[in-house]
Specification:
about 35% helix, 4-stranded mixed beta sheet, Translation Initiation Factor IF3, elongated, 4 strands
């Protein structure tokens, strides 16, 4: 499946628009990860624990988006947008949206 943030795929005209697809992933970061992230905030640098958690969430959201598009009969998702939000201490939400299409 082709998945892109652009609204078109070069050389592949959209045959049909099948609808908007969305996925939401909520992740909890554990206390140990929060502790090490706070140390990183104090001394500077990147928080590998949070970066890996964000990567995991992004991959999960995109995989779910792809599955939902496949159920509609799509072979591509265009115009993908990813949003990241903090819900409360240690909780992150990743929302992926796009348009399921046949090319």
């Amino acid at each position: 499946m082709i998945m892109t943030t652009t609204t078109m795929i070069e050389g592949k005209p959209v045959e049909s628009y099948l609808g908007i697809v969305t996925s939401e992933v909520i992740l909890g970061a554990n206390v140990v990860r929060d502790f090490f992230a706070s140390i990183t905030d104090i001394v500077g640098g990147r928080s590998g624990a949070y970066e890996s958690k964000l990567q995991e969430g992004r991959e999960s959201a995109l995989n779910e988006l792809e599955q939902r598009a496949r159920r509609l009969g799509a072979n591509a998702v265009i115009g993908i947008d990813l949003d990241f939000e903090t819900l409360r201490d240690g909780m992150m939400m990743i929302v992926a949206t796009g348009t399921a299409v046949r090319v």
